[in-house]
Amino acid sequence: MATFFLVISQAFAMDSNSVVAINQFNAICVRYLAKPEDIRTWANNNYTSIRDPDVLATVVGRISGGAAWRLPSPTGRKLTLSLRGDGKTCAIWSEAADPEDVEIEFRNMVAGAAREGIIVKTTTDSTLPTRSGLGRLLSMSVMDSHLGSGYLFTFIAGDLFAGAPISLSMQMVRLDAPGK
């Protein structure tokens, strides 16, 4: 797949939790481009793994083989890195980042990957119900037009998404070309 880089603009002032959340997503998930073993090794060497089954169920799901790590947060609120058990999904979960600020940066970051041979499409842009009101769901694909493979980037925001006090999550999953 052609190499692409996502750039964070930070053209406007964001709260420190939002800056850290988007920077961690870019530095970990995007940097390693969904190479789960590289992410797992790096995270195990740098952060404390999460063992609480309720937290793991929220950020990893019930698929075996997943893992999660607590990341440093400027305000001490929860910031989590997770890998799903299938190894194809990397995510950052934040309890304190401002969803509106992060959504703007997330959109700009993913859209910025577009160039010749790299196609960026918004696949989902909607609201969704949460226990505390409407949340946001945004999915954008970044595909190599020659190979047919790429990544799906998903932003979810809601105060109580999946029953947990999560302000937002940013997820990245590798999409393989059909037949691979």
Write the layout of secondary structure elements.
Blueprint: H1 16-30, H2 36-46, E1 48-49, H3 53-59, E2 67-70, E3 79-83, E4 89-94, H4 99-111, E5 118-130, E6 133-144, E7 150-157, E8 168-175
Antiparallel strand pairs: 1-2, 2-3, 3-4, 4-8, 5-6, 6-7, 7-8
Can you walk me through this structure?
This protein has helices spanning 16-30, 36-46, 53-59, 99-111, and strands at residues 48-49, 67-70, 79-83, 89-94, 118-130, 133-144, 150-157, 168-175. The chain has 180 residues and is α+β, with helices and mostly antiparallel strands. The chain has one domain (16-175). Strands 1-2-3-4-8-7-6-5 form an eight-stranded antiparallel β-sheet, with helices on one face. α1 (16-30) packs parallel to α4 (99-111). The radius of gyration is 16 Å and the shape is globular. The relative contact order is 0.19. Mean pLDDT is 83; it is low at 1-11.
**Pairing-aware structural class of the strands and helices?**
alpha+beta
Indicate the low-confidence ranges by residue numbers. 1-11
Q: What Rg is obtained from the alpha carbons, in whole angstroms? A: 16 Å
The total strand number stands at 8
Order of helices and strands: HHEHEEEHEEEE
Which term fits the overall shape? globular
| Biggest β-sheet: strands ordered side by side in the sheet | 1-2-3-4-8-7-6-5
Largest sheet: 8 strands, antiparallel
What's the domain count?
Answer: 1
Arithmetic mean pLDDT: 83
Question: What share of the residues lie within helices?
Answer: 25-40%
**Estimated share of beta-strand residues:** 25-35%
User: What's the tally of helices?
Assistant: 4
- Tell me the distance between the termini: 13 Å
